[in-house]
Structures are given as C-alpha cells and as structure tokens.
Amino acid sequence: MDKPKVVLGVSGGIAAYKACELLRRLTESGHEVRVVPTASALHFVGEATWAALSGQSAATEVWESVHEVPHVRIGQGADLVVVAPATADMLAKAAHGLADDLLTNTLLTARCPVVFAPAMHTEMWEHPATQENVAALRRRGAVVIEPAVGRLTGVDTGKGRLPDPAEIFEVCRRVLARGERATTPDLAGRHVVVSAGGTREPLDPVRFLGNRSSGKQGYALARAAVARGARVTLVSANSELPDPAGADVVKVGTAVQLREAVLKAAADADAVVMAAAVADFRPARYVTGKIKKRDGVEPEPIALVRNPDILAEISAERARPGQVVVGFAAETDDVLANGRAKLARKGCDLLVVNEVGERKTFGAAESEAVVLAADGTETPVPYGPKEALADTVWDLVLPRLA
C-alpha cells in the first residue's frame, strides 16, 4: 500500500529543533514525509538535517526544481500538512493567504487536513492579531493546537511552548485516521471537558484509598477531541501519562478537588465527559501522622463518608442549556442491567458501560463497551483500542449538542 504522504512545514522559531523528533516519529511509523522549512527555519536546523532524516530534499523556495511545479504539486499530493513549530508570522501569512515561499504556497494548494502547532512567546500568542488569525484558520477547517505552558526562550515561562513532539504526532495520527472527515473538524468552536484517571482519598500522609484507573481512556478522549478541533480541558486525577498536545490540563488528587475543577471548567462547556474513576467514599478522618502498627493491637476500623456525586450533580444542574453530559460505569457483574439503572439514576445523556477487573479495562490499551443513551438506544463498541471508543463517544455527542 502507498505510504500516507505528510508535509512537515517548519517555520523559524527556536522550537524548530523539536520538529526533528516529530519527523522521526512520522517516518518510523510508515509515513512518507516531505519537509518544507522556511528560510528562517534553516537558521535553527540546516537543510542537510531535514534531508537526512526524511530521505528527501528540503527546499524553501518555489524556484527550486521548477519543472516539477513544487509550489502546487507538494500540497496537491499530501494527505496531511502539519506546521510545527508555527510562528506568529506563519499563522498570520496562512490566515491572510500570503504565498511568498514554498511552505505558504503549499498551504494554499493543500486540500487535505492541515494542523498547526504554534510556538512563540506568551505575549505574541495572546496578542489580538494572533488570536484573530488563529480563529480564522479554525473557521476554515484547520486544527490549531493550543500551545503548552512551560519554559520558553531564556528565563521566560508561560503559554507558548511547543507541545511535546510525541503528542503532536498523536494528533497527526488521529487526524489521518479520520481520513476525509478530518478536513472539516466537527468539534471546531466547541469547548469540551474531560475527566481522567482515578481519585485518591488520603488516610494518612503515606496511605490512600484509590483504584486501578490509569487515565488512558480519558486521555484518548482528550486527544480525539483536539484532533477534531475542540478546545479541551482535561481534569486529570493522579495519571502519569504525558499531557495531550492542545489540551488545558488541570491536575487534581481527590474527588472533592476533581468536583471543584470540573464545575469550574464546565461553566462554558458544550460537553462534559466524566471518564475519571471517582472514589465513592473517603476516610471520615485524616490522620496527620503515619498510622503505626503496634504489636498485639488490632487497627481501628476505618470509617468512611460519601464523596459528592459529581456526575449526578452536573447532569441535574447543567451549566448552560443544551450541555451534553457523558458518564462512565465500571461494572463487575450484571453489567448492562447495572448500567441502565445507573443511567436512569444519574440523569446523564450517555453512559459508557464496561466490565472491569484486575486485568480488564483499567490500565489496558484496549477496551470494549456499550454506550447507553437516555433515549433508549444502545451502541456496542467491540474490543479494540481506547481511541476507537473515544471517537465513538464523540460521534454520539455531536448530534446531541445544542
């Protein structure tokens, strides 16, 4: 089979060196990659590096190999164009249709999905001109990944850092997997909130009540939503997974903290997906010092109190009209019967029901589930990657959005 053809555009920012890692991941996963740097990008990483890593020449000007009409042919033949890093200057040129080099010409001729991964100083990202350019690109169907927060050039820290190349690769992979549907990101303009991981309820400074959730399903939901154009807030409870590119990640520990973060993020959200495994109970008393084991003395029983029912709360009190709420039900027996009862009890629009156990679902890369809907429909999702379940969830959310 023909390899998917990817154009990797690289514009002139210090983060250009990170694009080498993105290029390596794309080529090693079976993609044919043509690197199209700007002249400024070559000040950071030379043409020889791009050619060696991609196995193809890396031209910047439309005047090279003119007989091949590269300023038209490269974009026409691409399955995906990704620009990483995308500087403020590149975003402005792309938004206004300027075409003064090979990369900007390629962007004008491409009819495939286009992904921009911006990287710049915080002030440049937040400038109204940049935000208007980003909004214009998104309206036209491009996926513009939100930059990460972290160390920038010099001693500066803030929003504007290029996301991890491995996570940019995941966005590209999800966009390519959607094929022609990806040319119109169906969650563009939407804000979605996803919870992930498992809460931990402290007993003393070193012990807690927890569960086996890794956060993989919630992170798959967040990555899928980013690839489909959404603004994503990911409320992550004790997960060790890397932050998904483009998602605003809020770290929490306990069920009470997760409730506070979800309610805050849900205030302007179009959809809330509660994929986190939230502890039903927490210790009634927190012991400030480590509980000691004493010879001949049995430990005192641990009294528990209920945690807030976040899913039921946000389902009953929608933060905005038409907000779609999705819950998850982890069951060990009578899976569908318990799931249907939970759907009626919680009042959410969709409930993803799956069977869990020591070696089922929690921590695994694959899952199978049945998505129950408040209207009585049921959608089985066969055993497979959790990203497939994630796309099914968003497919079911879309027609229910206001």
UniProtKB/TrEMBL annotation:
Residues 1-191 are annotated as: Phosphopantothenoylcysteine decarboxylase. Residues 192-402 are annotated as: Phosphopantothenate--cysteine ligase. Residues 5-173 form the Flavoprotein domain. It catalyses: N-[(R)-4-phosphopantothenoyl]-L-cysteine + H(+) = (R)-4'-phosphopantetheine + CO2; (R)-4'-phosphopantothenate + L-cysteine + CTP = N-[(R)-4-phosphopantothenoyl]-L-cysteine + CMP + diphosphate + H(+). Pathway: Cofactor biosynthesis; coenzyme A biosynthesis; CoA from (R)-pantothenate: step 2/5; Cofactor biosynthesis; coenzyme A biosynthesis; CoA from (R)-pantothenate: step 3/5. Residues 187-397 form the DNA/pantothenate metabolism flavoprotein C-terminal domain. GO terms for cellular component: phosphopantothenoylcysteine decarboxylase complex. GO terms for biological process: coenzyme A biosynthetic process; pantothenate catabolic process. InterPro entries: CoaB-like_sf, CoaBC, DNA/pantothenate-metab_flavo_C, Flavin_trans-like, Flavoprotein. Its cofactor is FMN; Mg(2+). Binds 1 FMN per subunit. CTP binds at D280, K290, P308, D309, I310, L311, F328, K342, K346. Its EC number is 4.1.1.36, 6.3.2.5. Keywords: Decarboxylase, Flavoprotein, FMN, Ligase, Lyase, Magnesium, Metal-binding, Multifunctional enzyme. It holds the Pfam family Flavoprotein. GO terms for molecular function: FMN binding; metal ion binding; phosphopantothenate--cysteine ligase activity; phosphopantothenoylcysteine decarboxylase activity. Catalyzes two steps in the biosynthesis of coenzyme A. In the first step cysteine is conjugated to 4'-phosphopantothenate to form 4-phosphopantothenoylcysteine, in the latter compound is decarboxylated to form 4'-phosphopantotheine. In the N-terminal section; belongs to the HFCD (homo-oligomeric flavin containing Cys decarboxylase) superfamily. In the C-terminal section; belongs to the PPC synthetase family. This is Coenzyme A biosynthesis bifunctional protein CoaBC. It comes from Streptomyces palmae. The gene is coaBC.
